[in-house]
Amino acid sequence: MTATRKVSRAKRREIIAALGRGTVPRLGLDLFAVGMERFEKGLDEELAAVTTGGSGFKAVRGEYGSGKTFFARWLAERAKRMRMATSEIQISDTETPLYKTETVYRRLIGALSSASSQHSAFREIVDSWLLSLEDVVLATGEVDKHDRAGVADAVDQLIERRLAEVSKTAPAFAAALRGYRRARLRDEHDIADGLLAWAGGEPNVAAPIRRYANIRGDIDSTSALDFLRGLLVVLRDCGYAGLLVVLDEIETLQRMRSDSREKSLNTLRQLIDEIDKGRFPGLYLVITGTPAFYEGSKGVQQSAPLAQRLAVDFSGDPRFDATRAPQIRLTGLDQGKLVMLGCAVRDLYAGGASEEARIRTLVDDAYVTELALAVAGRLGGQIGTSPRVFLRKLVTDVLYKVDEHPDFDPRRDYRLTLRDTELTDEERNAARGGRRPRSADDVELDF
Question: Which of 102, 222, 303, 326 is the most exposed place for a label (fewest CB within 10 A)?
Answer without folding.
Answer: 222
